[in-house]
Amino acid sequence: MEEMTIDRTATRPLSDVEHAHAWLERFNAALRSDSTESLAALFVDDSHWRDLMAFTWTITPHDGRARIVEGLMQAQPTVQARDFRLAAGLTPPRRIRRIGNDVIECMIAFETQSGRGLGLLRLLVDQPSKAWVLMTSLEELKGFEEPIHDHRPSGDDYSRIFGGKNWSDMRQDEQAFADRDPAVLIVGA
Question: Residue 95 and which of 67, 128, 157, 179 are 20 to 30 A apart at CA?
């Protein structure tokens, strides 16, 4: 009888989630290191980045590796983007075909100096260490979070069992200034 041995040094292929985590770790490190070479190594030549106010405070498309790296390097000192990760609660990384390319598509989340963002990352299946598409979008400004989930107001005025004043009564009270003085700006005299 022939004895079988198991080769414990054999490596298994990485999963789509592991490819995404690895790329995001390298991207975070490249942003921290301020290294154009490290950033350039993360994108294919014909890559695309669309920023929706997260880095540039405008809607800005960047086409090609050189323009993407230039845009990231120019914005990073001010924006201080960090903590790029897979977005919790959104579609996990999946293989899909986009414009004739087989990609690993990932929803991502990140932080900047002034806000929190979401984005989309597409890694090429045949080169999963490189991004083909990156989209970054500013979702909320720190200190001005949307009043949902943990930030949702509470109390009788926001209860499902409404026992307080109606909207019209609250507006009349607000306009009467019975509990405060109005804010007034006098221009000229």
Answer: 67
By CB atoms closer than 10 A (0-12, 13-18, 19+), residue 125 is middle
Distant-in-sequence, close-in-space partners of 188: CB < 8 Å, separation ≥ 6: none
The answer to whether residue 117 is domain-embedded is yes
Across 8-15, average pLDDT: 73
Q: Where are the beta strands (DSSP E) in the chain?
A: 43-52, 59-63, 82-86, 94-98, 101-111, 115-124, 127-141
Looking at the 3D structure of the chain, how many domains does it have? 1
Question: CB atoms < 10 A from the CB of 76, how many?
Answer: 18
Predicted pLDDT of residue 48:
97
Residue 1 has a pLDDT of 45
124: which strand partners? 103, 127
31: containing domain: 16-141
Please tell me the pTM assigned to this model: 0.74
